[in-house]
Hints:
- This protein is of the alpha+beta class and about 100 residues long.
- Helices cover about 30% and strands about 40% of the residues.
- β4 and β5 (about 65-70) form a beta hairpin.
Amino acid sequence: MNAFTVSDGSPEDFVARVQREIKSRQFEDIASVRLDGGALVVTFSWIGTTSLTYRVMPESSGFSARLEQQKVSPFHAPFKAGFIDRFDQILATVGARSVG
């Protein structure tokens, strides 16, 4: 997702939900999520590292996030769509809704 909203909860709660979902899908060796100041950083580590950085913006009862930066490992280029699709499914499961 290039941009998404979460209608309830804080970014910290969202990160905890995403991490639980990543673990339940046995994806924790490859993917992680963390907050870094006002940014949500998603990292894929497998024969190289790819990171997606989202700017987090508070909203009335939740927050929105917009992709600001992508650093894709050259080794991940052929697999990027697969990583992103799996991660988008995780985001949707924990309450993120695509914007745009």
